[in-house]
Amino acid sequence: MLEKIQQRRTAYDARNAQPDKEKLSQIICNKFIAKYTYQQATTVMWYIHCRSEVRTLNALYAEIDSSKRIVIPYCTTDCGGRNKLGLWLLEDLAELIPGTWGILEPPKIRWGEFGKEVLPQELDLIMVPGVAFDKKGGRLGNGAGYYDRLLQNVRADTELTAVCFESQLCDNVIMEKHDVYMNFILTEKNCYSSKAG
């Protein structure tokens, strides 16, 4: 769909041009950690940033030693060869190596390791990245479908909180029937409660 491609391109440009990414990312991550639902959650999924996404690594490093079960995603495929996210219980950043697109992930030799793999149904709260969002909870990803498949398999009460720069917001993200709405959109300026929240 040409409209969606154009919307993604415009959002990429806005995100790439965003000044003060490190400073704003710290503000956003601090707000995420301060959320009541984060404080109450047992198992929280973070993502490890790449390219111009909200930077998460510094805040994540500090949270590994918290009482939370911290989970990170990694890119793999299901038995049918479709893109999917594996879920890894992270206890030390030293467990990770650069993987798909240079994003830190567990080495393939450890995928499926007992005690380290987490089921989607175990997640209480998910930090969701994306390219563009709207204040109604619409999300536009990179187009590979990794998050779409994961989010369709979590519990109904799992909170989906997207993190992004305010510059990534648009009036109306083009959503398709398989797309999942976020509960909250968290930026450096505000936390928007969506139609799904």
What descriptors fit this protein?
alpha/beta; Rossmann fold; seven-stranded mixed sheet; two-stranded antiparallel sheet; 24% helix; globular
Tally of strands: 11
Percent of sequence in beta strands: 15-25%
Per CATH, the architecture of the domain at 1-95 and 144-166 and 187-197 is: 3-Layer(aba) Sandwich
Strand count, sense and barrel status of the largest sheet are: 7 strands, mixed
Shape call: globular
Work out the helicity level. Answer: 10-25%
The CATH C-level class name of the domain at 1-95 and 144-166 and 187-197 = Alpha Beta
Radius of gyration in whole Å, from Cα? 16 Å
Order of strands in the sheet with the most strands?
Answer: 3-2-1-6-9-10-11
The separation of the N and C termini measures: 28 Å
Average residue-wise pLDDT: 94
Low-pLDDT residue spans: none
Name the CATH homologous superfamily of the domain at 1-95 and 144-166 and 187-197: NagB/RpiA/CoA transferase-like
Structural class: alpha/beta
CATH topology of the domain at 1-95 and 144-166 and 187-197, which one? Rossmann fold
H and E string? HHHEHEEEEEEEHEEE
Number of helices: 5
